[in-house]
Amino acid sequence: MRHRSKFLVIVDDSDELGVAVRFAAMRAKNTNGGVILLNIIEQFDPQQWQSIEEIILQEARDKAQEKLQKWSKVINDLTGIVPELIVKEGVASDQIVEILKLDQAIRFLVLAAADSDQPGPLVSFLAGQKSGKLPVPLVIIPQGLSDQIIDDLASKAD
């Protein structure tokens, strides 16, 4: 049975996130697919902060939900799609690979590359060391693309 294709976008604090969100949203709209927004709370060593560990984690979860809600609204306003929202805790690359393996409907991992000499640590890692181990294609959208170009790239092939 064929499932609706999903596009996974990693939500972080990067300036380039908007182009990845737009591409995934428009591509999902044009292919009758879905979008998953994933925010990862990086692990930290709570040993010396045990008494406030839960407070710190709850604040991080609240901030993660705020980010996801913000980008969910952008996608919904743009396309009418209501994305799935996921918050995970741990090492980003491990959590991404786990989500990709668990949800067989995810067809593409969409990231954006910074408009600088360095594309960003996650792009570098996933396009480098992990590229041959990912179970889906990695789509990297350059930060400098205009909305019109992104929309054109995300359109259905004629």
Number of helices: 5
In the CATH scheme, the class would be Alpha Beta
The biggest beta sheet is recorded as: 5 strands, parallel
Q: Which second-level CATH architecture applies?
A: 3-Layer(aba) Sandwich
Structural class: alpha/beta
Give the CATH topology: Rossmann fold
Mean of residue pLDDT values? 88
Level of helix content? 40-55%
End-to-end separation in angstroms reads: 25 Å
- List the secondary-structure elements in sequence, H or E: EHEHEHEHEH
- Poorly predicted residue ranges: none
The strand order across the widest sheet is: 3-2-1-4-5
User: What is the count of distinct domains?
Assistant: 1
Number of strands: 5
The proportion of residues in beta strands is 15-25%
What is the C-alpha radius of gyration, as a whole number of Å? 16 Å
Can you say what the CATH homologous superfamily is?
Answer: HUPs
Shape: globular
